[in-house]
Amino acid sequence: MISHPDEYFMRAALQEAKKAFDADEIPIGAVIVCNEQIIARAHNMTEKLTDVTAHAEMIAFTAASNFLNSKYLHECTLYVTIEPCLMCAGASYWTQITRIVFGAGDEKKGYRKVKGKILHPKTELVFGILENECAELMKAYFRTKRD
Questions:
Q1: Is 80 in contact with 16 (CB distance < 8 Å)?
Q2: Residue range 1-14, pLDDT digits in tens
């Protein structure tokens, strides 16, 4: 058994976010875990795929559903470095994912800006895991865009 699973799996999501950073994508990474095993890894690929929906979470949902051969992600946890946007939070509703764990909040585009129920009522939310590291990677990316 992993001693600090949320931190351990968030570090895996951060590795994905660094892949996005290196590919000049907004550095958001995600992993989906089932039974303490990573079943999906993803990072933002909107530029590479020229697809505004190619967010890390969306790609991870598809990969996990394919792995499980199920449209539902019961008993799964999504670890994502930045708070999901409204689209990704809405998609999580339909997957019926058990838990969502995110690192840093997104005051501008995070789903929590919108009032009302967006996550599935049975989805547990945890946030602030490795928050500083997740936020710093985003800040570093946008600094490169301003220079």
A1: no
A2: 556 799 999 999 99
The 8-class DSSP code of residue 41 comes to E
Q: State how beta strands 37-43 and 76-82 pair.
A: unpaired
CB 96 within 8 A of CB 122: yes
Residues 34-78 pLDDT 10s: 999 999 999 999 999 999 999 999 999 999 999 999 999 999 999
Active site residues: 57
Q: Provide the whole-model pTM.
A: 0.95
SS (H, E, C) 69-110: CCCCCCCEEEEEEECCEHHHHHHHHHHCCCEEEEEECCCCCE
Separation of alpha carbons 122 and 21, rounded Å = 33
User: Sign of the C-alpha dihedral, residues 83, 88, 90, 92?
Assistant: negative
Single-letter amino acid code for the residue at 124: E
Please give the helix or strand (H or E) that residue 2 lies within, else none. Answer: none
